[in-house]
Amino acid sequence: MASTHRMLRLLLLLSFVLSMMAGCAAPAAAPAPGEAAAPGGEVAMTEVGTPRNETLIVQTFDGKTNAPDNMNPLMSGYSIWRGFRELAWGYLWEMDTATGQSYPELAAELPTVLNDEYTQFEIKLKPGTYWSDGVELTADDVIYTLDTYFNNKDKLTYWGVSAITNYVKSYEKVDDYTVRIETVKPAYDFVTTLGVYTWGSAFNIVPKHVFEKVEDLAAFKNEYPVTLGAYTLKSYDPNGQWHLWERREDWDRSATAPLGEPAAKYVFYKNFGDEQTRTLAFIKNEYDVDTFMSPDSIAAAQAQNPNVHTFAASLPYHDMGDACSYGIIMNNLKAPLDKPEVRWALALSLDLPNVGTNSMSGQFKGSALPMPDTQITRPAFFEPLQEWLNELTLADGYKPYNPNFGADMVTKLTEMGMDPAQLPTGDAVTDNYGLGWWKADPVEAEKLMNSVGMFKGADGFYTMPDGSPWTLELVIPSDWNKVMQRVGFSIADSWTKAGFKVNARQVDNGEFGTVQSTNSLLQTMVNWTTSCVFNTNFVNNWRSWTAENLKPVDSSEQVIGNLNRIDNQVIFDKIAEASAMDMSQPEFLAAGQDVIKETIQNMYYINMMNIPTTIPTNETYWTNFPKQENPYAVPYTWWSSFKKILTNIEPAAQ
């Protein structure tokens, strides 16, 4: 009950502060599209000079960017998450995120398989797709991009360059709209590798007529890019806080033309600041779609503005179908994290029910496997492995799996004072909270730590085997991802109570990516990028788990793949075998299950929960966003599928 009272006090305090800041008044009615905003007849304008009723405004995924002028999709660190991939580009094949099925975008159709070995393919491009400067897209652009990937793979840092050059064996132009490609191995995932799997693609086709004139492609900023999508960049903030995109006049010749005309003439990606400032701006109708706003702030905004809505009307209120999940990356190469006993001790010291209630008010779904638990992955991986999980034992005979995790969550929330009518019952318990997770058992964790010579000192914290102090650094996002930030602080609290001395260090988005990719900087961090499995094709994300992608333990060289720092030949061999398998066959899924078993037994990665995508919408200016009752696309403004949302939203009736 004490925890419930604390949450209620926090919610009431936030509501009071926001209402005082807003003048304790209901938000002013927004003008209907095309109507005046005030008696003087002036249409409401945005801060960047566009009509508010023609502008869709979204909070950026990662706050500000340190490279707002970099629009070169051949280099890592280009200005992602703020319109380039979502609005400006096109891919051979896109992903219908409502069904998990690929569909042609730049291509005229799905590829033709030319041999029984599944290594030779023919791609036909759709005639009549034009770059924004009026030049038609042809096979020359595809061939030029492949040439560029291969000829510059040592200096181009976009992750897709390595993925494609290790995947494609040869290629040739047949005619202006036809290309043939041969792959290194059987490629049953050809469409999602050369096209979109989830949020974007490894293969970013660039305009030959622009890039062939550039002397140094690695230094090229591509500041105002020629685009394939329905939008072009109109302006941006040199400080990295916002980007403004404008719909092309010839949108009907763009890659996304078959979807229809995008409703918003302008799309404005902006960082609205810390969560309190964002919540106030949201209440005042200053923007339309948020990204990872915490549940208590959403509730406070809803109390002030009836146009603020969550993905679902009932608990857990938010979309849980993201391709990725929240987990903890560890530098498995660095002592003492190189010991599986230490990694398991950290997992068993992580009290996930407390983490999920403290950070998410219980609005989350646990996942013990290194992937999210979704309607696609559950029957393929989670359900077949339940018996194995229940029988899993550690070296001392201890069984760490708790199959009653969901029921325990319902009990915990009931004891905290939540109305039982709001909580799931029956099968809905595991649907909402997952099939199981690891036991919270600091006693067993201490046994594991002691088994490798790590004991608690006089201060109650674990020491290194030589008796010296050990401080475990946990890197977490700063305010640019408030939800993950809170999850990180809750993890640090859980570990501290179990005897680990933790330094929870907040970093901005730029440093977050640097730590993730640098062995010398990484001990542990809360992350999502290594657990992204959107459908049964587990190889799509895990093919980077190779020995070649490992760097020395304290290297400052950028890690391109294998961010989990897995050094396990069994896993390497299984993934290599699966890469050449027909993904529709049971053997493929069995190989994935074997990889999962090996990953869990060694606890290379502590997966925790499906990403609770807390994405409230303000429907004062725009309606018909994806919701639980109409999930025509995932509700994410940072995936390339956002283009489908833009052709489905509608101006709000006033």
Determine the fraction of residues in helical runs and give it as a percent range: 25-40%
Distance linking N and C termini: 42 Å
The total of helices stands at 21
Number of domains: 3
Uncertain segments: 1-40
What name does CATH use for the topology of the largest domain? Dipeptide-binding Protein, domain 3
In short:
With 654 residues, the protein is α+β, with helices and mostly antiparallel strands. Helix content is 29%, strand content 14%. The chain has a five-stranded mixed beta sheet. A four-stranded mixed beta sheet has the order 1-10-9-8.
Any overview of this molecule?
- The protein has 654 residues and is of the alpha+beta class.
- It has 3 domains: 2-24 and 50-68 and 224-318 and 614-651, 3-Layer(aba) Sandwich (D-Maltodextrin-Binding Protein, domain 2), CATH 3.40.190; 84-211, Dipeptide-binding Protein, Domain 1 (Dipeptide-binding Protein, domain 1, Alpha-Beta Complex); 325-453 and 525-610, Dipeptide-binding Protein, domain 3 (Roll).
- It contains 21 helices and 21 strands.
- Strands 16-15-17-12-18 form a 5-stranded mixed beta sheet.
- Strand 8 (231-236) and strand 9 form a beta hairpin.
- The two termini are 42 Å apart.
Topology:
Layout: H1 2-21, E1 55-59, H2 84-88, E2 93-96, E3 101-104, E4 112-113, E5 120-124, H3 139-151, H4 159-165, E6 168-175, E7 178-183, H5 190-194, H6 208-211, E8 231-236, E9 242-247, E10 266-270, H7 275-283, H8 295-304, E11 308-309, E12 325-330, H9 340-348, H10 352-360, H11 377-382, H12 386-391, E13 401-402, H13 405-415, H14 428-433, E14 437-438, H15 442-451, E15 471-477, H16 482-497, E16 501-507, H17 509-516, E17 524-527, H18 539-542, H19 569-579, H20 586-602, E18 605-610, E19 617-618, E20 622-623, H21 642-646, E21 650-651
Parallel strand pairs: 1-10, 15-16, 15-17
Antiparallel strand pairs: 2-3, 4-5, 5-7, 6-7, 8-9, 9-10, 11-19, 12-17, 12-18, 13-14, 20-21
Helix pairs in contact: 1-8, 7-8, 9-15, 10-16, 19-20
